[in-house]
Each structure stands twice: as structure tokens, then as C-alpha cells.
Amino acid sequence: MKKLALFVSLLMIASSFTASAWGPMDPTDTKADPDDDKLGNLDEFRAGTNPLNPDTDGGGCWDGWEVTYGLDPTNPEDDLFDTDNDGWTNLREFLEGTNPLNPNTDGDQYPLDSTDPNPLVPDTRGDPRIGPVPLPIPVAEWDSDNDTLADVFEPEWGTDPFNRDSDGDKLHDGLELYFGSDPNDRDTDDDGLWDGQEVWKMPGDMHFTGTSPTRADSNGNGIDDYHDDNDMDFLPNWAEWKYDPITGEPLNFTNPRDPDTDGDGVRDGHEIFGNPANGDQTSDPLLADTDDDQLTDDIDPRTWLVDHLAWSRVVGNSTCPTPFFPGVVTKGVPFNVQGQVEFNMTPYTDEGTGDWTPISVPMLVQIWIEQDGVMTPISDPVATGNHGLFKVSVTIGDEVKAGLARLVITTSIHEKVEYLPMVWDDASGNRLP
Asked: How confident is the model at residue 206 (pLDDT cuts 50, 70, 90)?
């Protein structure tokens, strides 16, 4: 086995410090809040936040507010989550002053903050047919169909006390009254979407547009909610469901509030009608890898056909059968690692078998040093040239100890194909699992 011996010298590293907002001689400074984010200096230290910046992660929500509600003030992504599934992101909850952990902050008859015109003031919904008359719903009354509308009030609304969804629109009668829709009309606003397609129906429900069941054009953009595309996935709202050919009942399909339901990087509409970024190919919007060939739909050259993945290996060139590099190197002195990448579409049993061919597509090659089980990169990823040839200039840094080490070469065919690694090392010279 080739050894990589490193002759290095010791290097003294000066320590550094970072200024803070605390006065080292003032014990009350731990409670001071110089950035006015409702988080004292000591709590900022514990949370890992910047005491001089009210919004450390830049996500829009102040640090103190995030800590209060158990969010991460150092992660901007959770500002855009909808933690309580009420139709508003955490950032919107921060701006509105509502509770991001409670879908109904004021506890009134509007079950979701996003549908409540006064989410901080308890109020009631009226009968959409006759105006804003307070709606009494006594919780102690008997409710045979468990639709949150007491039996004694069902005749008043013309609903069936033994059928929780009298009009069959996927929204039970009690919620119809909460949202102001008509419990005897599947499509209260006549926009083409059933009331149950437009609003939240139960905990965990993800299949609703978030539009109003009482306004045909909820956002006022001139396009009715049926034809609008609220999640901007190039799929109109109505097409986010499949429909029973006999009853017309909408059946859950793609998520109408998520442009990429399966998370494969392709918007739902492009999966159905053709992805312009991948040869106008169609794919299944519910499967990240439609043909289950380990290539996700955003990069698969044939989304409906299984593509067999090639093996790959790192070799030398015509004059050297293995990658070339010096056996002894000195810290701080650059040296070159040269070789070639080949691929094989046929099975092979050892190094001398199989139909190996220089790869024509560019690959990324990176050089590492392994010592005591720790991998340390000593080069940036470098693209291969013609016929898979590469020549990478590397330098041993201070983080590598003097003595024996192992040189490792990693390659990747595509930055998104993490399951196609190829590792060469100077111990075996073969592809490793």
C-alpha cells in the first residue's frame, strides 16, 4: 500500500476574541436588552443569538418572540413554517400578533386565525343568508352526528341531525356555520369549488385551497378561485383534485397549497403537463422518483423508464495504471494528483473485468486525506476534462498531522445524485460501497 508521509513543522496560532454587548463589571447587564427584541443578554447567549440584532436569523420574526413560542431564532426557514396549520406562516402570526401554536388565538367561532377578520377579538359568525346574526352553539346539547351543531339547532338550519355533512361538500355542518358557508349548498359562492375544497376541515387536513367559500374571487385578482392558481404551480386550483366520474366528488390529489407536492424540485403543473427544464417530460406529481430508478424526476432523463446506473472508478492513464501522486509530500508545498474516471454499464467481478470506458460527462473530483478515521479535504471539487481526465493541485494544511496518511479521491456525477458516490483510495484502488 502506498503511504503518504507528511513532514510538518509546528505552528503557533494566536487566539482571538469577539466583542459582546455585556458590561463585564455590571451584573445587571445580563437582563439588559440593547436590541429591544424582548430577550435579555443572558437569554441571547443561551439561545445563540446576537444581542445587538433583534432578528438574528433575518427571517422577519424577532428573537424574543421566536424563543417564547419555541421556534429557532437562528434558523430563518422556520419563520415561513405554518406551525399550527391555520393558513398563516409564523412570520404572518408575528406581524398580526397571533399565537403561532394556536390555530384559533382568540378562541372564538372562527376556527382559524387566517379566516378571522379579528383574530385577537372573540366574535361570532352569522347566517350568510340573512346577515350577521350571532350564532349560538351550546356545547352541552346533544349532537347525534358529531358535527358540532347541536341537534336542537339542526332543524333551524334545515340540516340533517343524523348526517354531519348535509350537503355532501366535505365540510361538516358545524364548520359550515363557522366559515359562513351554507350547510345546504355544496358551493356557497358558486365559484366551481365545493366549500370543503376551500377551507380546513380537520386536524392534519392539507387538501384545501385556503380561499373563501363565500367569495368567488377571494384575492380579487379577477380570476375566480376555481381557475386561479394559488400555489403558483402551473396547475389551476380545480386540477389539484381528481373527480369521481359518476358523482363528481373531489378526491385528494396534489396539495393545492404546495407548488411541489412530492418535493422533487418540479412544480406539480410541470409534472403533469411537461417540465421545460427537463425536455418537457411528464412525471407523477406524487412521487419524487416516478420510475423508482434512483434518479429524481428533476434530473431523470427518462422519468417513466428505469435507467440503469453506471459503475464508476478512478484509474490512471496510458502511462500509469493508478492515479499518480508523490509518495512523500511536505506541508505547505503544492503537489498534483492525476488520474482518469471510467464507467462501466456491465457487471464486473474484479479490476480486470467489465467494459470500462472513459466517462464523457464532466464529473467533480475532490482530494482528501484520511488520518485516524477522520477525512480532511485538501482540495476544492474540480471538474474533469475530456475523457474523464483530471489533474488537481493540492496542498497539505495545518490541520493534517505529520506521519502516515491515506489519500482518498471522491467523485460525483451530479450534485443532486447523492446515491452515486465513488471512492478511490490508495489501499485498494477499487470502488468502495
From this structure: confident
What average pLDDT does the segment 418-427 reach? 44
Confidence of residue 348 (pLDDT cuts 50, 70, 90): low
Highest mean pLDDT among 19-33, 261-275, 309-323: 261-275
> For residue 44, what is the enclosing H or E element?
helix 41-47
| Amino acid at site 131 | G
- Using CB atoms within 10 Å of the CB of residue 176, give its burial: 0 to 12 exposed, 13 to 18 middle, 19+ buried: buried
Q: Which long-range contacts (CB under 8 A, 24 or more apart) does 346-353 make?
A: 348/311, 351/429, 351/430
Report whether 51 contacts 41 (CB < 8 A): yes
DSSP output for 163-210: -SSTT-SSS-HHHHHHHT--TT-S-TT-SSS-HHHHS--STT------
- pLDDT tens digits, 56-84: 887 778 899 999 999 999 987 888 788 88
Q: Could you give the CA distance from residue 412 to residue 433 in angstroms, rounded to a whole number?
A: 14
Q: Residue 427 and residue 3: Cα distance in Å, rounded?
A: 9
Report the alpha-carbon distance of residue 302 to residue 313 in Å, rounded: 24
Domain with residues 311-425, CATH architecture = Sandwich (2.60)
Decide if 375 contacts 408 (C-beta within 8 A).
yes
> Does pTM top 0.85 for this prediction?
no
- Residue 268 and residue 261 in contact, taking contact as beta carbons nearer than 8 Å: yes
- Cβ atoms of residues 277 and 290 within 8 Å: no
CA 420/CA 33 separation, integer angstroms: 50
Contacts of 148 by beta carbon, 8 Å cutoff, 6+ apart:
137, 172, 173, 174, 175
- Return the domain boundaries, the chain: 311-425
Residue 138 to residues 122, 132, 150, Cα–Cα distance (Å): 16, 18, 7
Cα 192 from Cα 238, distance rounded (Å): 8
Q: What is residue 221's predicted lDDT score, i.e. its pLDDT? A: 94
